Amino acid sequence: MRKNTEIIEDLLFTVERSHGRIKQTHLMTKVNLSHKQLTSYLENLLEKGFVKKVNEKNNIYILITSEGTELAQKIREMHQFEKTFGL
Questions:
Q1: CA–CA separation, 77 vs 52, rounded Å?
Q2: Tens of pLDDT along the chain (87 residues)?
Q3: Domains, the chain, with CATH or none
């Protein structure tokens, strides 16, 4: 079972890899979450300003913000630190 932090990482990294924007349904599939789970995590990320939600042509897109990109980079740095020190 994934930890909450791992799910948040997956969400941010997936949006980043999709050139900073992805349809909400595609994101749900790629990170393997139910609609209810995705909604909960997205609400948290939206409140904190790490992602934005836009509605275009009857599709909901999730966009990563500069703050979200910065958080993703910090997460990568933490993983590198853990790897470097064998943690």
A1: 24
A2: 889 999 999 999 999 999 999 999 999 999 999 999 999 999 999 999 999 999 999 999 999 999 999 999 999 999 999 999 887
A3: 4-82 (1.10.10.10)
pTM value > 0.85: yes
Question: Which CA distances in Å does 66 have to 15, 16, 69, 73, 83?
Answer: 12, 11, 5, 11, 26
Least Cα distance to 65 among 79, 81, 54, 78 occurs for 54
Q: Identify which of 11, 12, 10, 2 has the alpha carbon closest to the alpha carbon of residue 70.
A: 12
Distance CA 81, CA 68 (A): 20
Instruction: Judge contact between 51 and 64, C-beta under 8 A.
Output: yes
